[in-house]
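Researcher: Structure for this, please.
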Amino acid sequence: MTTTAQQPLGSPFSATSSAHDVMDGVDLSGKSALVTGGYSGLGLETTRSLAAAGARVIVPARRPDTARTVLQDVPGCEVVALDLADLGSVRAAAAQIGDRLDRIDILMAVAGVMATPERRVGPGWEGQFAANHFGHFALVSELYPLLAAAAGARVVVNGSAGHTLTDIRWHDPHFRTGYDKWLAYGQAKTANALFAVHLDALARDDGVQAFALHPGKIITGLQREMSLREQIDRGWVDEHGNVVGAGFKTPSQGAATGLWAATSPLLDGLGGLYLEDCDVAAVSLPEQPMDDGGVRDYAIAPDAAARLWDLSVAATGAAPITR
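Model: Predicted structure, token format:
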């Protein structure tokens, strides 16, 4: 993938399109899908939409009992326990999924954390980098044979416009010299985008496509570790928690771009692209404000994506995916 491919395609959908709009007429009968975080917020909208289209949906969940309660009325949906910040849990979940499925047609990496207090997991990894990137990296690596077994599988990774906050901090990715919760979030979201770039490059011969995306601004459980005052000061909500910020989407609108990435024939033969508002995003300039949209060139750079991949294999011990 090159930046010349990072151009809008003229999709019939837009920022205001809903999950229902995107999935209207889509038939996923006989398909298997996996949605991390698929029991709340955008993940729940995604799970419901895929199941309504006929897919069998596996939902790995950090709170499996809660997930089963939430999803009890969703047909064809199964829950597997998974903590993305715990590599042992990731491998155990992947083994269970492998026992249930012979292929995965759609893998949606929707789960994530944002702007959390400083946390150390595993061997001292920064928590947002570990949960948002390492966990999904290890899960996809473990499940890759199931993706390769499908005819034209797609992997869709939820990133964020927050990637504009920082490139990968190669000198100190785990913030050992001082923690900043927003830079840690931005780095994790840049990692999500780079992960899709290199996964697509490695997997294209197996017919697997990978995309990253910005779902838009949406108030969901993702903000759970931010205080109400912080959200008010940022202009997102009022004193009662009602959304008042300009340009915010509903959860259904927020799920639309991911569902479009997973199912749109416009994306056949493409991959490694960064998407927003149900289309391919343009490349943004360093001085452009985050809310203007687009993707920074450092988040889709093939060399950086390969470097992050090698770092991630070394850190997680994941089985390498080779061409």
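Researcher: Any notable elements?
Model: The CA atoms of residues 24 and 53 lie 9 Å apart. The first strand starts at residue 32 and ends at 36.
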